[in-house]
């Protein structure tokens, strides 16, 4: 006997504009689910929506709310237009059905495939269909990869969506823009003649030369110096192929420039006694700060029965040099799985790629004097806190820890305000240009993701149950 269905929750998802144009738009899915429920005399209580989210994983706000409500018993059936709207991953599909829906007595119905898990046949078919959905996705990915490799081998440009400064793109080819090309050559020449990147930037802006329709910045000048495309080659997935476009500089000049960039970085690092930033192996190195003791984070590796495991860990938990009252109170920060933390940051950037309108023009208050004075008072109180404990052995450790935590929270809050009032490192137009370099940051290589993260994010304050991201631009 089939399960008597009364309360139905609809779920709809679309990831790209192409899917919407192919009949998978949110509104069209809702319309089909509504009509289906009406025909079956089912009560469609709510529709959970995830517009602009990929089906490759289940880390989506609408899906998370659906799972939460399923556990709370708000409905007895989940209805989708098509199986891949739930997930394109076999593992995730079976997890949702077996570990969530079945466990909490919720049936799953897919309209297009015409089955539901309240029947024996439906339970058998769901596993089979999810396998084919996964297979189809992998085949599409394989065909796309083969097509891109073939394009790269033929020498065609792989960055047609973001043509490098100095070139124009038409008829599936890159052509030299004579004026912009002369600026590219000048940038390389000036740098090898000892001019700093900052000076090159200032000179170009003073002369009124625009870079890709916006003023030049340190990052855009550095991007020109780093771009091997100017030597006449094209790259894909770490492989280099001869390009069909005209070179603007020779390979020798490019190699000399890379050597000079590295030499200047080493010199600057040694003068400032700081770790060399270009050697940072991990995406969030140098960006993370503990929300409890303000210390930085490092990556540690442990070995488990499943193999090596990396995680980010607050430095004050094993370094005596970091600022913390470690002798009298242990920093409560926990370890954070490296992969999970990095994927969360990438997902936040991906949301901005999908909604670039969230980036707003800078409009900040420059009156920071009172806040700076208040910050100095807090820092003075923090410095005196240890002395207070040493001079007064009657002071309970619990009170000391409470006072320490309160001062740390105040310090973090005021610092955040000051950072928000400062001029942004990246202007809105530049931020949008950086985000447009790829339609999906998850499709980039790790090093490319790392570069983009460090350009877009100034600092990440880490707590045990939340993250505060300080962007390099206004949002």
From TrEMBL:
The keyword DNA-binding applies. SUPFAM superfamilies: Resolvase-like. The keyword DNA-binding applies. It comes from the Bacteria. The active site is at residue 15. Residues 164-267 form the Recombinase domain. Keywords: DNA integration, DNA recombination, DNA-binding. Residues 7-155 form the Resolvase/invertase-type recombinase catalytic domain. It holds the Pfam family Recombinase. One of its GO terms (molecular function) is DNA binding. One of its GO terms (biological process) is DNA integration. This is Integrase. The lineage of its organism: Bacteria, Bacillati, Bacillota, Bacilli, Lactobacillales.
